[in-house]
């Protein structure tokens, strides 16, 4: 049976993942709107609209960088949580750690 600390860790990890995924989805939704506006401006061929696209494309690129950073953080957090969970797996459920004996040389 898993100890309370492990459940708290799993809950915290899941909460962090959920928060990151919500942030990513929000940025991706914003990017969809930016791309639609960029396409409309491009199709209009109106000079002011085409000039506006420069700023919109910069914003889009910055958003993509944010998404990459969030996914990088997610990857690091996931790896860290796996490391923590696997090291907790070395303990027996009765709370006594598994002890390895060294063989005499």
From TrEMBL:
<comment type="similarity">
    <text>Belongs to the EARLY FLOWERING 4 family.</text>
</comment>
<dbReference type="InterPro" id="IPR040462">
    <property type="entry name" value="EARLY_FLOWERING_4"/>
</dbReference>
<feature type="domain" description="Protein EARLY FLOWERING 4">
    <location>
        <begin position="9"/>
        <end position="87"/>
    </location>
</feature>
<feature type="region of interest" description="Disordered">
    <location>
        <begin position="80"/>
        <end position="105"/>
    </location>
</feature>
<protein>
    <recommendedName>
        <fullName>Protein EARLY FLOWERING 4 domain-containing protein</fullName>
    </recommendedName>
</protein>
<dbReference type="InterPro" id="IPR009741">
    <property type="entry name" value="EARLY_FLOWERING_4_dom"/>
</dbReference>
<dbReference type="Pfam" id="PF07011">
    <property type="entry name" value="Elf4"/>
</dbReference>
<keyword id="KW-0090">Biological rhythms</keyword>
<keyword id="KW-0539">Nucleus</keyword>
<dbReference type="GO" id="GO:0042753">
    <property type="term" value="P:positive regulation of circadian rhythm"/>
</dbReference>
<dbReference type="GO" id="GO:0048511">
    <property type="term" value="P:rhythmic process"/>
</dbReference>
<dbReference type="GO" id="GO:0009649">
    <property type="term" value="P:entrainment of circadian clock"/>
</dbReference>
<dbReference type="GO" id="GO:0005634">
    <property type="term" value="C:nucleus"/>
</dbReference>
């Amino acid at each position: 049976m898993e100890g309370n600390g492990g459940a708290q860790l799993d809950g915290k990890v899941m909460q962090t993942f959920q928060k990151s995924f919500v942030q990513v989805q929000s940025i991706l939704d914003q990017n969809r709107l930016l791309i639609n506006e960029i396409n409309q401006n491009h199709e209009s061929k109106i000079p002011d609209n085409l000039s506006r696209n420069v700023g919109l494309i910069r914003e889009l690129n910055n958003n993509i960088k944010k998404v990459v950073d969030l996914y990088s953080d997610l990857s690091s957090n996931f790896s860290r949580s796996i490391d923590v969970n696997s090291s907790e797996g070395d303990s027996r459920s009765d709370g006594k750690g598994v002890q390895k004996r060294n063989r005499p040389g």
